[in-house]
Fold this protein.
Amino acid sequence: MPTISMFYGVLIRMFFKDTDKHHTPHIHAEYQGKSAVYSIPEGKLLAGSLPLKKEKLVIAWIEIHQEDLLADWELAVNGQVPFKIKGLDQ
């Protein structure tokens, strides 16, 4: 599972060929032992949880980088390495 971004202690990852469980383009976010899954098109929480402040940052980041994330999603589901995407603190 490649890490595609990191900002304010939050790791953003995508799994290779990860279409079975959530059936929608999504990212995995991790922060201090907590993890959550967010849809890329809507920025909606699909599973897990993060602290509220970190969740707001992740949702804003998804909105800013939606096109890049969808392009990375296509790469990842086809078994290719997704590109890195700038974090909010860069």
